[in-house]
Amino acid sequence: MSNHDLVMLMKERAESVQAVVSMISSFHDACRYTVELTRHQKGKNISAPDLSEREHEIMRNSCKGTGINSLANPLNPEKVDIHTSLTRAQWGIAETGTLVLNSHSEDIRIATMLAEIHVAILPAENIRPDAESLVHELSAVLESDTPSYTAFITGASRTSDIERVLTIGVHGPRELHILIIGDEA
Known about the structure:
By secondary structure, this protein is of the alpha/beta class. It has five helices and twelve strands.
């Protein structure tokens, strides 16, 4: 399957579980998208814990004049104030529309679990056809000597009670936005 076909399958399957998928061409686009989404939903704070200092500067500049604050790390003291989180997914699984995030940082876990809205940047070249295609990458993560947290995220948080009433956002974000970045996007 070509990379373009994987991107299209990832988009189709992620949208089938109510994720919003957009194609972008740069990190600047990701910041603009995240700030505009937050502004549109009347949010006040964005957490982007896994950015370089240069990328944090781009995010801060994107927030200027909008009334939106780019939260600083560590997030724990501010965790109740996260409206939108911006993270990087290491891989995508096209077959199910699933994001795979591997982290050594508590801030990333906080951002992906406690934000109202989760925006994830996914490089097109890191989309795999199925979970089995990630065996070598995940084995390397498990064999590393560093504690980490790996999350498989498919759509927004959802649960049903005993009466089968679907509730969105109980155990995590109520919206998932996937920004696919890369030449094939």
